[in-house]
Design brief:
Elements: H1 3-22, H2 28-48, H3 52-69, H4 75-91, H5 100-115, H6 119-139, H7 143-169
Helix pairs in contact: 1-2, 1-7, 2-3, 3-4, 3-5, 4-5, 5-6, 6-7
Length: 171
């Protein structure tokens, strides 16, 4: 097995563990913290899998998340990061139409991070985002990450339901 591919898969797995763990966060910023680590590890994974638009979008996601954690996120930042994702994603796209998927996924979640005011609504944004990334991982044949995306979808759904039930029982 190719060393680069193996390294890509290892970083994919570590990335997925961080993302999965983030779904248990009881605050938006706690979720975003773990998703920042996920983005850095995802960028390394995409680098080893030679998906350069994935590298760029993951790095931008990590930086975007820092703005959110530092409470510096605003509509200008959202527009700026969406613009950067489009321009740099297209510039570094080496996978033709498939390379657009990370751009779409990152823009979706950039907007979700800004619009969602609590951890529960952010989980819904994450659910949509993980679905998009799952499609991408399947297409680029990152099967371990596709499986991890499926597990993350299940954990995210579990935590959405768990929090809904917790909210109902507190009334």
């Amino acid at each position: 097995m190719d060393t680069m591919f193996l390294l890509g898969e290892v970083f994919s797995l570590l990335s997925a563990v961080c993302l999965c763990y983030s779904t248990f966060g009881n605050s938006k910023n706690r979720m975003i913290f773990w998703q920042s680590i996920d983005s850095v590890l995802g960028a390394l994974s995409n680098l080893f899998l030679f998906s350069f638009s994935g590298v760029v979008t993951n790095i931008l996601a990590a930086i975007r998340n820092l703005f959110q954690i530092k409470d510096k996120n605003n509509s200008f930042i959202v527009i700026f990061f969406c613009f950067l994702n489009i321009v740099l994603g297209l510039l570094f796209n080496n996978r033709e139409i498939v390379g657009l998927i990370p751009i779409i996924a990152t823009i979706e979640y950039t907007v979700a991070v800004y619009v969602c005011k609590d951890s529960q609504s952010l989980r819904i944004g994450l659910l949509i985002n993980t679905f998009i990334w799952g499609i991408y991982d399947l297409i680029i044949k990152s099967y371990p990450l596709f499986i991890a995306d499926s597990v993350i979808l299940i954990f995210t759904l579990f935590n959405i339901i768990r929090c809904m039930n917790k909210f109902k029982s507190s009334k």
